[in-house]
Amino acid sequence: MAKLQDKSSLEPISDELNLQGNLREYQKRGVAWLEYLERLGLNGCLADDMGLGKSVQVIARLVQERESLASEEEIGRWEDERNGENKGNKGEKRNRGDGKTRLSNVPPTLLIAPTSVVGNWQKEIAKFAPHLQSMIHHGSDRLQNPAEFKTACQQHDVIITSFTLARKDEKLLHSVEWQRIVLDEAQNIKNPKAAQTKAILKLSAKHRLALTGTPVENRLLDLWSIFNFLNPGYLGKEAQFRKSFEIPIQKDNNRIKSTTLKKLVEPLILRRVKTDKSIINDLPDKVEQKLYTNLTKEQASLYEVVVKDVEEKLQTVEGIQRKGLILSTLMKLKQICNHPAQFLQDNSEFSTERSHKLSRLVEMVDEAVSEGESLLIFSQFTEVCEQVEKYIKHNLRCNTYYLHGGTSRPRREKMITEFQEPDTEASVFILSLKAGGVGITLTKANHVFHFDRWWNPAVENQATDRAFRIGQQKNVFVHKFVAIGTLEEKIDQMIEDKKKLANAVVGNDESWLTELDNDAFKQLIALNKNAILE
Q: Which of 287, 289, 294, 288 is nearest to 488 (CA)?
């Protein structure tokens, strides 16, 4: 108890950590806090605001743990050798914390996330800690034989799966003793009676960690449910919690009870907000992140049909016809990556089940708006803008604006003025890239989403600068969607490579895409089978 109250025992993390990239000061404190709680045998909830980098803090903690265990293993071996107990193994090279091999005696971490971000986690691990071995447990070809699954787990540091599979593959996941279970978007277990929540509670692990920007989404029971996963019994049984805290606080606005609850949960929740001066000074003015999403089965099958079709046609066309074919193919594939309904043009349902990209966008918009933050969403397709606006307005019931090429000037001015009003509620402004990309100021927004990528960084940055310009009082968070295993990912990589080449500028249009030879173009548009998650 004394250690829990004494925050000075948070040990700063080593700058020598084998992490590709630098942690900001508040992120270092976050990793130190995670390590400190785990040392005490307690489980915490990392509840940082959206955009402050919860995932990189978790990855850094995994790296830190691995390195400290590696050095302990080395010390143990050195002592064994010194005591003459390990003479036969002197020449044998043991696993190091910085190599590609795993530490033999550490169980893997199980990471459970919404389906829409499963692929993103693997990308983040590969980016920040390429020496950590990760495996996605998802899709129809996932391992379902317990013996094979156990063996695979022993060869990996992190197993990534979805909330849906935590319920479906309950027995399989239960057969492994995990080092830790991490729940990303932990509000997914806010309903204690749901089968999914019950299945996750049965899993056994040495440590548990919840990540969520919204620990209390609708009612205090959400918080109880997350704590029931983290530290069962700490906030009492559900009925007891309702009687002691939820009813007096929510119904009667009982200050004493809310202060008591705050004292109970405070040591076990770390929440930093973007408006905190100490955090703001630690952030660059513009924080950019890629959001990798997978294709649904429906998207993948449409994608493959288009690729097969174009491969046959490429053999017979040349010159201007070939250019036209390539451009129309790129357009079709981009539409499929957005949403099947956009490509099919059949007035079918524009739902989140059919596109992980849409599902992730809606989750993030909901989180930002619930924090009172306004945002911009850009797409180069007016039909997507239209559908996204309808969906958000209808399902999230928030204030929306939509600007496109056909918007009259007075209407456009009125929307911008209304959106910029400082005292109005958080709003979502959806803009077609060409209509909203230049010449307007929307500094009330501090999140910018690029739903589909305009494959020219200059044009994308111009659009981002609607929010990131003089008059902006907050840090701007830029989120760029990329569909994994598709041409979106490959072109994103090409743009990054071009940026690296002495920061060379990619022309002012997409003409460079049509200059590729047939084989290079086929490679570009090929669908990587790992991209499909169902």
A: 294
- Sheet with 399-403, side-by-side order of all strands: 286-293, 476-483, 445-450, 374-379, 427-432, 399-403
Pairwise CA distance, residues 48 & 269, whole Å:
9
Q: CA 187, 191, 194, 197 torsion: positive or negative? A: positive
In 35-93 the beta strands, taken as DSSP E runs, fall at: 44-46
Residue the block writes with tokens 């020496």: 131
SS3 279: helix
Q: 3-state SS string over 324-378? A: HHHHHHHHHHHHHHHCHHHHHCCCCCCCHHHCHHHHHHHHHHHHHHHCCCEEEEE
Task: Give how far Cα 106 sits from Cα of 41, 79, 91, Å.
Answer: 17, 20, 23
pLDDT in tens, 208-236: 999 998 788 778 899 999 999 999 999 99
Phi, psi of 375 (to 5 degrees): -150, 160
Size of the chain, expressed as the number of residues it contains: 534
pLDDT tens, residue by residue, 184-206: 999 999 999 999 999 999 999 99
- Name the H helices within 465-509: 487-500
pLDDT tens per residue across span 20-79 = 988 988 899 899 999 989 988 999 999 998 888 899 999 999 999 988 887 776 666 666
Report the C-alpha dihedral over residues 335, 339, 344, 345, rounded to 10 degrees: -90
